[in-house]
Amino acid sequence: MPALTRRHLLQHLSTLAAGSAVGLPAYCAYAAEWGNWSGNQSASPAQFIYASDEAHISEVVRAAKQLRVVGGSHSFSALVPSDDTLLSLEALNGAVSHDTARHQGTYWAGSRLAQVSALAAAAGQSLINEPDINVQSLGGAISTATHGTGGNLTCLSANVTNIRLITADGIALDCSAQQHSEIFNAARVGLGCLGVMSQITLQN
Ligand SMILES: Cc1cc2nc3c(=O)[nH]c(=O)nc-3n(C[C@H](O)[C@H](O)[C@H](O)COP(=O)(O)OP(=O)(O)OC[C@H]3O[C@@H](n4cnc5c(N)ncnc54)[C@H](O)[C@@H]3O)c2cc1C
User: Fold this and answer.
1) Atom of ligand 1 at shortest distance to CA of 137?
2) Cβ distance 50 to 88 under 8 Å?
3) Is 26 in a helix, a strand, or coil?
4) Of the four, 17, 32, 141, 178, which is 20 to 30 A from 127 by CA?
């Protein structure tokens, strides 16, 4: 989440009206400067929105002219910048459920990997592999095939069993190897181009 400086606060206040003008809940639409972790990518989006729930994601997707999702802002590539709408799922974090029998966990896509790892551990499970840092969002890590080390271990995307994807028309699609399988396979490393993942199920 960008640090709330005095400048951001002023921008926030001045764009509340703009947010309402396009039908977005005023409390979560504001302009902000965005930069990634290494500082080699930046953007000045017209609006930076924190999604409050899946219905809100659908609403934002339908209303936006151009939209990019931002996770933990750790990608070096230009995957996030937009001068229109940046959507963060930072507020959509935590566990949805754990399936003890299948050893699977479903998490909100805005969860950071450290949080997912801790939630899995609390449920008696564990991520199969992790990268060398764990501050990425689950959605960002899955979208970019983030991987750890280990000759026989796959990237995190390969351990995804289900994705709930909010598509460009605002519909929520539950995708898996059995349901919408082509979309599922594309979304597993979608580079943020295929819709907004709201929930992700991992084989732990
Ligand atoms: C210090 C450092 C160490 C790293 N270590 C490793 C490592 O060990 N192994 C490795 O493989 N990589 C590593 N990376 C790369 C990092 O894992 C990836 O760049 C990852 O994408 C970052 O996740 P993020 O949440 O920051 O995503 P962001 O950079 O914010 O976004 C990445 C992409 O994901 C999309 N996205 C994010 N959330 C969603 C969503 N909910 N729905 C749809 N699309 C979404 C965005 O639109 C964008 O296209 C490292 C990076 C850094 C800076």
Assistant:
1) 25
2) yes
3) helix
4) 178
Fill in the DSSP letter of residue 151. Answer: T
Q: Which residues, judged by CB distance below 6 Å to any ligand atom, belong to the binding site of ligand 1?
A: 37-38, 68-75, 79-80, 89, 109, 131-133, 136-137, 139-141, 143-144, 146-147, 191-192, 196-197
Q: How far is the CA of 137 from the centre of ligand 1 (A)?
A: 7
- From ligand 1's centre to the CA of 171, what distance in Å? 24
Per-domain residue ranges of the chain: 6-88, 95-203
pLDDT digits (tens, 9 = 90+) for 1-33: 444 444 444 444 433 333 333 333 333 455 578
Topology of the domain comprising 6-88: 3.30.43
Going by CATH, does the domain composed of 95-203 fall within 3.30.465.10? yes
pLDDT tens profile 98-111:
999 999 999 999 99
Domains 6-88 and 95-203 share a fold: no
Lookup: tokens for 140: 């960002």
Taking residue 64's Cβ as centre, other Cβ atoms within 10 Å add up to 20
